[in-house]
Amino acid sequence: MLRKLIPLSLLFLSSVSFAQKKPLDHTVYNNWESVGTKQLSNNGLWAAYIINKQEGDGVLYLNNLMTNTKLNVARGTNLQFSKDSKYAAFAVKPLYKDIREGRIKKKKPDEMTKDSLAIVNLDQSDVLKIPRVKSYKMPENGVNVIAYLLDKPLDTAKKAKPTGISPSIEKKDDSATAFADEPDAKGKQEGTDLVFKNLTTQTLRIFKYVTDYSFNKNGKQLVFACSGSKKDKLAPTGVFLFNTEKGTLKTLVKGKGNFKSFTFNEEGEYLVFLGENSPEKKEIKDFEIYYNSPTLDTAQLLVDKAIPGMPVKWAVSGDGSLKFSKDSRKLYFGIAPIRTPKDTTLVDFENAKLDVWSYKDDYLQPMQLKNLEKDLKKSYLSAIEVFSSDPRIVPLTDIKLPDATLVNEGNASFVLASTDYDGRIQAQWTGGTLKNYYLVDTKTGSKKKIIEGLSGYAMASPAGKFVLYFDKKTSNWYTYNVLTAKVTHLNNGLNVKFVDEENDVPDDPAPYGMAAWTEEDKAVLIYDRYDIWEFTPDGKNAPQNITNGFGRQNKITFRYEKLDPESKFLDKKASIWLNAFNNSTKERGWYKKSIGNQQNPELVVMEKMTYSDLVQAKDAERFIFDKGNYVNSPNVYVSTDMKTQVKLSNTNPQQQNYNWGTAELVKWTTPKGFNSEGILYKPENFDPTKKYPMIVYFYEKLSDGLYSYQAPAPTPSRLNIPFFVSNGYLVFAPDISYETGYPGRSAEEFINSGVESLKKNSWVDGSKIGIQGQSWGGYQVAHLITRTDMYAAAWAGAPVVNMTSAYGGMRWESGMNRQFQYERTQSRIGATLWEKPDLYIENSPLFKLPNVKTPVVIMANDADGAVPWYQGIEMFTGLRRLGKPVWLLNYNNEAHNLMQRQNRKDIQIREQQFFDYYLKGAKAPAWMVNGIPATEKGKSWGFELTDEKP
User: How far apart are CA 287 and CA 272, in angstroms?
Assistant: First the structure.
């Protein structure tokens, strides 16, 4: 018997060894997949979705949901279905390897591979590919036509004269070269071929030297601008209108110029566009607005700087947008002061270059410089009655009243305008401004102030009968009746909060928001923490909790899922879909609810998954979405009722070959008696009889993401959780709540107590615990290691260590000063530096650095636009002066969060080597032992492991 058992035992051991899953390594990232865009054809029969790779070529999938016909196209993107769902078109990007090779060889833009266009006949699954395409457009509604703009021909093709339609324009060969667009060079560009195609009849028209083009909604009109050619003096120049049904061509403007922003009215009969024919070297161009209708043979000048109503020294802005009102009676456009051109006679080296900061400036100089380009293009909303016999423009905004939104799709007799003029300086310390709101008459330009000094926001109702606004100071919702000027306090007398119940920053709490309006502005739906309330805007009817309090009773947060992006109102007789989140279990799913009854929401599905938004077919009751959780990679599904879900994709099958992990919710009570929770991630092969090192990662509250998928990826600098879990670490992500004035102590209260709670388990190695945080989390890492030596290793990304110097510092990415962050928001001091200097010092780790016993790595990048990178330098030089083990990583010209993928990959390796050394007893890398001398920069990265000690 013994002889027979031996080989069986060996066989069993062999099979166990064979089945053992390998840990993730740094080579897996590039091929890891994620779900991209998802959409359905209008009839709901075709599903399209993209599966992307982190680095490499993605795939566009087209699935016929009735016949199960499938079409997969590598590198497909930017797909659009035709209105009748018979055709699809999409761009095909170049091969990743071709783009990479081009960058390595430093090819010029003209030499780089370009995008191509694919057109699919869905009935026949026939794919037509056209190379070297800059862009394509299909009409939103109506006929099956397409227009696409070709890129410049290759040098070899320039020698051949085009005769008619070149057979090289269209190819069915899948090997057709794919091409990508290039950035515009300065100066006017010579146009390229615009190809129009009727997909039903297969007829083609080619228009030469086109720079811009647009369809009307039904596709019966195609407008385009032609630049002409220096080499072809007979080439047409100007603006042309092509009737796609009749095949006729109308010349709207003849002659050279810059024409753009083609805009049709809703019915597609009227057309406006911007144009200028100023000398090419003139810096400030003289834009005008042109207009055309079916009764006009050519485009007529509608607005120029001489039109009545135009302010003195103002003109039409070439950077503003054009928009018809829904009823086509009004045109809205932008005007702007005429800028002063540069003085070309000035000698550059004889004039000073400086920025003058003034205490009276609305915005600090860094913000002015950051927004300079945007400010130079700023335009101010104006209107004109299109059919008026006495044409004149009505400026609706100006420098002191700069912002406005259209009401009732532009049909209303007024716009809602707002301003914070004369109150902008306070944003330096408050982070926001108080605004005044006005109704501005579109015929006369007269202004009526309706709200003064609002901290919050306001919006017009869809039909324009009311202005709904939220006041942060009072935490209340109000309406303003446009007809009667009556103000109604909507939530008056209700004992439920409509603002963040867990607000823990020293600022007024933010609202949960509003969902939608019902027909003709009869009611507005507003959220509390859990439920949805219906308010009549005039206050005549008592508020109704349309989810019947079911959300609060069961700690489920309901939010309206808007499925039709074009809908203005909710139909009270219809059922709506509610996105649901269980705050206790962290499960997510869907309910349905009829607004018109008082019944509880109807459960459709709740599960331990995270869902994307639902995308519905325009003409069918079918949805496409994706879902996943920590264990299951997100995949694409379709459903008609969300109860029966059909899986379409299969992302990341390679995950099953790796030691993955699990995520579980853990709860504990802090020393002060607060109930807290967090996520504990364990390796898939977790063995409770073993001891595991643990890394603690934190940033505000993370537990709501219990069922979120986390792909192994080179991160911007946060912890790569699945990688460390796969490699035998526990990872703990505790939630933190804050006490104003004491963010450091709050971190101790929640993080340390959560760790102590987990250390009670025999499988946690209490002597091998590390902490990692980025930005605000990096600050807390720095604080914790000055208060306790319970952590064996620490990693702080972009930390603030000296609040006294950071308080007056800059957020260079936005140009904002950092004072608001300490007085009102995340840094949570709640006072100025002069009011409570003791709190700034207490919460600054710099002053406690002698207490540090934990080895720490700091990431502080020299192009950080959020945290001044000298904060990291202060921490590093302080610890270095004290003889503490510390390293600083400065990724050159990098942002607050790493943006360049090669740097993200680099930090993953260093982070693993650092924690492996201190928490697993692995060998130390050369960069930790000897650093990397400047003489070796770019030659050695110091990853090689050594037997030496840091």
Answer: 13
Which contiguous run of DSSP H or E holds residue 92?
Answer: strand 87-92
Q: How many Å apart are CA 836 and CA 741, to the nearest integer?
A: 9
What is the rounded CA–CA span in Å between residue 617 and residue 69? 18
**Proportion of the chain above pLDDT 90, given as a percent:** 89
Beta-carbon contacts of 885 under 8 Å, excluding residues fewer than 6 positions away, are 855, 856, 950
Q: For position 102, what pLDDT does the model report?
A: 85
Burial class (CB in 10 A: 0-12, 13-18, 19+), 131: buried
- Annotate 30-69 with three-state secondary structure: CCCEEEEEEEECCCCCEEEEEEEECCCCCEEEEEECCCCC
- pLDDT computed for residue 45 by the predictor: 97
pTM, whole model, 2 decimals?
0.93
741 within 8 A of 829, measured Cβ to Cβ: yes
Per-residue pLDDT tens digits for 726-767: 999 999 999 999 999 999 999 999 999 999 999 999 999 999
Which whole-number Å values give the CA distances from 378 to 338, 647, 814, in the listed order? 11, 47, 18
Residue burial 447-466, b: 16+ Cβ < 10 Å; e: rest: beebbeebbbebebbbbbbb
Q: How far apart are CA 635 and CA 589, in angstroms?
A: 15
Per-residue pLDDT band for 725 (boundaries 50, 70, 90) equals very high
Contact 292, 262 (CB under 8 A): no
* Residue type at position 693: P
Q: In whole angstroms, what is the distance from residue 408 CA to residue 459 CA?
A: 11
Q: Are strands 145-150 and 204-215 parallel, antiparallel or unpaired?
A: unpaired
Which residues, in sequence order, are CB contacts of 802 under 8 Å at separation 6+? 844, 846, 871, 874
Report helix, strand or coil for 234: coil
Using alpha carbons, list the distances in angstroms from residue 824 to 426, 505, 821.
Answer: 12, 7, 6
Q: Kindly tell me the burial class for residue 509, based on how many C-beta atoms sit within 10 Å of its own C-beta (0-12, 13-18, 19 or more).
A: middle
